[in-house]
Write a structure and sequence with these properties.
By secondary structure, the chain is of the alpha+beta class. It has 13 helices and 10 strands. The protein has a 5-stranded antiparallel β-sheet. Strands 6-8-9 form a 3-stranded antiparallel β-sheet. It has a two-stranded antiparallel ribbon with strand order 7-10. A hairpin with a 4-residue loop joins strand 4 and strand 5. Helix 3 runs parallel beside helix 9, helix 8 packs across helix 10 and helix 11 runs antiparallel to helix 12. The protein is globular. The termini are far apart.
Length: 362
């Protein structure tokens, strides 16, 4: 019988007893005698590497893992919100297996509640994985690899019956609720005068062209964008496709971490990825070729009604406005100001290059 695990509230709760019980989901024979917890890494104070010694069953098993959670007992807002952590782990556990997702770390135990959630997963670093960050943009080969990976994933859910009534991601399901929480609860918080002003007054806001600092104009463009998107196919998107959530394996295979998986119109995920993952000069040079590659791979993966290049190009350019608004309004708890600024400037530059305001009727 599987052991009952208490969701860890503090970093110190990750001890030999907890790790043993968590790993037994994958390897029933293991027993861990010692856990050495490394320092918390990343901007949010919610993950760390552990090294383990085995008392039994450790032959051929890794001795390094990553543990992540929101650890409410630390009483530190920098560990992140309970909802965000629960959303991420439920996405990884319950939604990602429903699609042809890119590579990701193997997880051994996930536990989720409204107050606390945690995961123990494989440590990809010893296997030679390369992780990206906002100041390490993709080269052309890497970008093409990710476009292929997204095409494969989108094709596996392209206007899927799973999104309909009674489907695995239809009304009443976790996936449907994820989209509702993001689109109907989180996004509307952007357009309050106090909230908007607080972000415009930060370096990220002051770095924006004046046209993007006007809340009324931005809200009009935002509404117009979402009125156009139902003309495009619904797919499962990763939901936060910036460089900090991307990696490649030692063999160059694209991988994703930190999911906010949900059904969404394909231009949202694709524009967010391209505008955040590429240097501005590279994006200007490569974006048409990358979009064409994406469309050809969609067809190769069986999407008979893939959009034409002209149609896709239009919606991609309209959706360039999406990451402008989301990065302007991104909480300073989630990313440092330098990353928020880098991404909002990349997105705003693309929106200017493509006259997104004009395409959206402003």
């Amino acid at each position: 019988m599987a052991e009952t695990l208490t969701i860890p509230q503090r970093y110190e709760d990750i001890d030999a007893s907890w790790v043993t019980a968590a790993l037994r989901r994958s390897w029933p024979e293991v027993a861990v005698s010692r856990v050495d917890r490394g320092p918390v890494f990343g901007f949010k104070q919610n993950k760390f590497r552990i090294k383990v010694d085995y008392a039994a069953g450790g032959e051929g098993k890794p001795d390094s893992f990553i543990v992540k959670g929101n650890f409410p007992g630390e009483n530190d807002p920098a560990t992140g919100s309970a909802w965000a952590m629960a959303n991420e782990l439920r996405s990884f556990r319950d939604i990602v297996p429903l699609v042809a997702a890119p590579a990701g770390p193997r997880w051994h135990h996930i536990d989720v509640s409204d107050e606390a959630s945690a995961i123990i997963m494989e440590d990809l670093t010893p296997q030679g994985a390369t992780f990206f960050h906002a100041h390490h943009t993709l080269d052309l080969g890497q970008a093409m690899g990710f476009m292929d990976a997204f095409a494969r994933m989108y094709a596996s859910s392209w206007n899927s019956p799973m999104f309909g009534e009674g489907g695995a991601m239809g009304p009443g399901t976790l996936a449907h609720e994820n989209r509702r929480m993001v689109n109907d609860v989180y996004f509307p918080t952007f357009f309050t005068a106090e909230n908007w002003r607080s972000y415009v007054e930060l370096p990220r806001g002051r770095a924006l062209p004046r046209a993007f600092q006007d809340m009324g104009r931005a809200q009009h463009a935002w509404s117009r964008l979402w009125s156009l998107l139902p003309q495009t196919a619904m797919v499962v998107i990763h939901g936060d496709e910036h460089l900090g959530n991307l990696y490649v394996t030692a063999s160059g295979q694209p991988g994703l971490i930190d999911w906010v998986a949900r059904p969404e119109h394909w231009p949202i995920g694709l524009s967010y990825f391209l505008l955040c993952a590429l240097d501005i000069a590279d994006r200007r040079t490569w974006e048409k070729a990358l979009l064409s590659h994406f469309l050809s791979r969609l067809r190769a993966y069986g999407v008979a009604d893939a959009p034409s290049f002209e149609e896709a190009w239009f919606f991609y350019r309209c959706a360039a406005f999406y990451p402008v608004v989301t990065w302007l309004n991104n909480s300073a708890v989630w990313q440092p100001e330098a990353i928020n600024t880098a991404n909002v400037v990349r997105a705003a530059t693309a929106a200017l290059d493509h006259d997104s305001f004009g395409l959206l009727g402003l």
